[in-house]
Amino acid sequence: MKFTLSWLKTHLKTDADLPTILKGLTNIGLEVEGVENPAEKLGAFRIAKVLTADPHPQADKLQVLTVDAGDGALQVVCGAPNARAGLVGVFGTEGAVVPVNGMVLKKTAIRGVESNGMMCSFRELELGEDHDGIIELNPDAPVGQVYAAWAGLDDPVIDVSITPNRQDCMGVRGIARDLAAAGLGTLNAIIVPTVEGVGPGPDVRVEDSDGCPAFFARTVKGVKNGASPEWMAKRLKAIGQKPISTLVDITNYIMIDLGRPLHVYDMATLKGPLVARRGRSGEQVLALNGKSYTVDETMTVIADDETVHDIGGIMGGEHSGAQDGTTDVLIECAYFTPERIAVTGQKLALTSDARGRFERGVDPAFLDDGLSIATHLVTQLCGGSPSEATRAGSPPVANKTVTYEPSQCLALAGVDVAEDEQKRILESLGFGITGHDSTFEYQDGVPVTTPANWTVSVPSWRRDVDGWPDIVEEVVRIVGLDQVPSTPLPRAPGVAKPTATSEQMVERRVRRTAAARGLAEAINWSFISAKEAASVGGGDWTPDWILANPISEDLKVMRPSLLPGLLSATRRNMDRGAASVRLFELGRRYFAGQNDGSWERATVGFVLAGEKASRGWQTGKAQPFSAFDAKGEVIALLAAAGAPVANLQNFGGASSAYHPGQSGTLRLGPKVVLAEFGVLHPSLARQFGLTGTVVAGEIFLDAIPAKRASGFMRAPYAPPALQAVKRDFAFVIDETVDADSLVRAVKGADKKAIVEARLFDLFVGPGVDAGKKSLAVEITLQPGEKSFSQEELDAISAAVVKAAEKLGGTLRA
Questions:
Q1: DSSP letter (8 states) at residue 172
Q2: How confident is the model over 481-497, as a mean pLDDT?
Q3: Bridge partners of 673?
């Protein structure tokens, strides 16, 4: 919501300066998003007079001007067709910055002729779209004076963020009312003119009372449309509204000034009565934005006997809008149901200033006054003869009251505000108060206080106020939220009990472990593009998780994988010169069609790209990451998450995001996949603009078997009393047998004595038959109460060899 300081002061009589007003807005809950003063960027542009204008010797379309900007004559080269001797315009001196493009003016030669500064157009100063020639001012304009000061442009534009519940502040008057209640001035009385209509009003009807409960209208015949008066056009342009014509600008001005959207129809385009009705399937409307929209039975439209002229409360039709040649108009002032407006706007993906106000809820009691003000402005600025008003339907003006005790302010908000101050605040905001105030008297010599009890009537423009807590909020908001004391909640004595769930504790351990291993945490959007979703296995994504009205096409699909966000972050880091990128993210993946609540799954993803180790005199060339680096990260993070790492099995079958020959999965049995990892598929890496070897992995925390939470305390250190014994075995086995299968078989040969088995060598070559390979395994034996005897060691060795033989392996000689 934008408005100028001078516009605000048409409603608020105040001596407060701009900083005080800005602070006051923030204090009462109207957050100031920005302030811009056009005069600040125009300080170097002065009023100047063209003394002479001669043809440029080297260019037919250029002129050489002599310009006086108050400091003597300067030579300027100008290409404007209207440049001539005697013209008074706006001159940018050397060093000035042109607002439209940021160009710094300096002395230069143009086609061999020196030029000092520039004569400016309205568009170059961002004061309009006119660029056909330089600005022409009144010949009496004072030469040498700063143009912004002379033109009255020293008027700051304030941009305020309005929360959805404050529909009353979608107009300048509502903001002024809040500031007056906060003590920053006095709210000026609103003047509603009396319009004497001649003849019956237009034929308007309401058939869809659910969507449009009230439709008030009046005609004005014999108008003359044209450019808006300077004061109106100036205010609209200051807040970014492009003036169109007087009739259209009147509706826009009243909408911003009073928060009351209206619409004007050219009566020459209407065929029969205007009816507020439900749309019909297949009906189309060519809206004022130049786009066609198809309406349906759930939407409210304004139509005549032949066609639809308005998407009710959102946008009018191009066909029936006011034009330059319009002579007879119908002014619409209607009330549209907020819920219907919101649903219609979402379905059509159509936004407008009117929709933003109607879906919040405009004042239903302001229809007559709004129509009178609009009619008065039309007749004053465009002439014409108004008719009587037609009132179809009735606005939902409810007499809402709230029982309130002033003591509730202290009880709920902790702020002690005097009764008379509360009454002043509420009445300043438009609330009515009846009932009795608190009294103090002696009864039989005993002091007795009777608390106040008020009946507060809610104004028609505050549909957000429903109960006494809302009344407390209004009082505290105006007094100032900084007055609310910071009171800690009561705390039970003793050591605080843990509040984190087991899932949260797992995520904390994983996050800390990843950071300790040198990975930097990334936080990405949960939404990605459809193309990215398809690249990681989301090509058959069901529509359940595709947004119908996304902020952007690149944020349309809920992510099926954490990899797209991590890969995009990796590319951004490498584009900025990062030699090595190690990122991880702990978040959620989303799956549609799940009835067991598993559609949202906790996942840890990571990406390693660039150099694993930099080049050096000992290491030689820089070393890239490999699939084994990804596997190492996966195992470490699984261990931190409490997964039974020792029981995991290494399988293939990673998703299509990975290189099929350099990837794998870690599972508990053939079906329970805990993680997948490996080298990224080259095509996927290229899609994200990455080169070289990129490795990645995802750990599915929801698949890890739950176990009893142990908190953050480590298990007590209990080293074995006796020294472990290690033995090495080398087996010749078929190349088709996984090393993991052999290691597991060996470890299972004696589950009590063998505490660890580890592959430490792979050999293929002389001495090993073709189709075979030699795998060397180191086993660790841990004695219990006494050391192993030789006979026990021999028995364990025999069991190890026998376990390998079951897989077709033989002890290598």
A1: H
A2: 84
A3: 667
CA-wise closest residue to 641 among 515, 513, 750? 513
Amino acid at site 119: M
C-alpha angle 740/745/749, rounded to 5°? 150
DSSP state of 537: I
Q: Residue 631 to residues 250, 569, 706: CA-CA distances in angstroms? A: 68, 21, 22
CA proximity to 693, closest of 724, 663, 652: 663
DSSP letter string, 239-265: TTPPP--HHHHHHHHHHHHHS---EEE
Q: Once rounded to an integer, what is the mean pLDDT over residues 696-718?
A: 79
Give the orientation angle of helix 246-258 with respect to helix 172-181, to 10 degrees: 30
Axis-axis angle for helices 172-181, 419-428 (nearest 10): 170
Residue 187 bridge partners (DSSP): 12
Q: Where are the alpha helices (DSSP H) in 383-463?
A: 407-413, 419-428
Pick the more confident residue, 712 or 511: 511
**191: nearest Cα among 10, 331, 358:** 10
Give the bridge partners for 446, in sequence order.
443
- Give just the sign of the alpha carbon dihedral 441, 443, 445, 446: negative
Residue 537 scores a pLDDT above 80:
no
Dihedral sign from CA coordinates of 150, 378, 261, 123: negative
- The letter for the amino acid at 321 is G
Tens digit of pLDDT for each residue in 422-469? 999 999 999 999 998 877 776 667 776 778 899 999 999 999 999 999
HSE (side-chain half, CA atoms, 13 Å) at 77? 18
The per-residue b/e assignment along 185-203, b for 16 or more CB within 10 angstroms, e otherwise, is: bebeeeeeeebebeeebbb
Q: Which two tokens stand for residue 102?
A: 């940021």
Dihedral over alpha carbons 112, 113, 114, 117 (to 10 degrees): -110
Query: What percentage of the chain exceeds 90 in pLDDT?
Result: 72
Q: Is 400 helix (H, G, I), strand (E, B) or coil?
A: coil
Do 589 and 601 meet the contact criterion of CB atoms below 8 Å apart?
yes
